[in-house]
Amino acid sequence: MRTEEPHNRRRLHAFVSGRVQGVGFRYHVLTEVQRLCPHVVGRVRNLHDGRVEVIAEGPEAELQDVLALLRRGPRWSVVEEVTDDWGDARGDLGQRFDVSHYDGASWVV
User: Fold this and answer.
1) Residues 26, 43, 45, 51: which is the catalytic one?
2) Based on CB atoms within 10 Å of each CB, which residue in 8, 16, 45, 77 is the most buried?
């Protein structure tokens, strides 16, 4: 884990394609982000098209660690592609990193 001033926050929006659903990918990301990136907040979720989406905010160095984690995935996944988009932090992702679920009407944490 790298250290960086927590106030230097960025936003990462990433999509992961491959065999990333049904293999524990989201919970792997959740536990590793919570363990290695203490200043990162946001969410990870499955999309209907088979991809996994991650929206996260935190220090850029920790977000780079998140991106590296997405590119590796857990050993039982097959990551084919990770696309990422960077921007300024908005402060609208809450106070922790978590898994989102679709309740039939909207995405909830």
Assistant:
1) 26
2) 16
